[in-house]
Amino acid sequence: MIAKTLFATTGLILALGCTSQVANAQGFTLKSTTFQDGQMMPKKVANKNPQNPNCVGDNVSPELSWSGAPAGIKSFAILMEDPEGRGGAGVHHWVAYGIPANVTGFAEGEVSKESDKYVGGKSTQGVGFYSGPCTPPGSPHHYTFVVIATDLEVRNWRPV
User: Quick one: pLDDT at residue 84?
Assistant: First the structure.
């Protein structure tokens, strides 16, 4: 049952490119109105696959917002990871980078498709946008959202 397989956690990492600057992460926060940290994610964020009884969602990306990034950052990157997926090898559900420093969040459903607000890296599912959880029956999986603040310039990083 889907309600037993979707836990969410949020995380923040300050990776300031290749500089030696040390960042203060105390004020850098990530929040979601779609789910609470450490709680079950709603069914709508799960992917859809008729072959899997835990995969009966609508693949709606959760709302995410962050604040308190250090001064001088130039872009953000975001990862959504399932560390228990694929037998502990992990699953990358969403990889995004080239997010301008003035973008501080995404609305619910906004990253379920390509967007001009980010460059989509290839997920484990082979797409460049959000791909919701689709866990196998069994133990619950935990999903971690990581926002990375960088000193990397935003440019046309579109994959070729």
Answer: 84
Per the structure block, which two tokens stand in for 159?
């994959």
Rounded to the nearest integer, the mean pLDDT of the chain is: 80
The CA distance from 64 to 112, in Å, is 13
User: pLDDT tens digits for 25-71?
Assistant: 468 889 999 998 888 889 899 998 888 777 889 999 999 999 999 88
pLDDT tens readout for residues 126-140:
889 999 988 777 777
In angstroms, the CA 45 to CA 57 distance is: 6
Query: CA distances (Å), 83 to each of 51, 68, 88, 91, 158, in order?
Result: 22, 27, 6, 6, 27
Q: Which residue has the tokens 């994610």?
A: 41
pLDDT at residue 1 is higher than 90: no
Residue 28: other Cβ atoms inside 10 A? 18
The Cα–Cα gap between 146 and 138 comes to 25
Residue 92 zone, left/alpha/beta (φ > 0; ψ -120 to 50; rest): beta
Asked if residues 106 and 61 have their Cβ atoms less than 8 Å apart, the reply is yes
Contacts with 109 (C-beta within 8 Å, 6 or more apart), sequence order: 60, 61
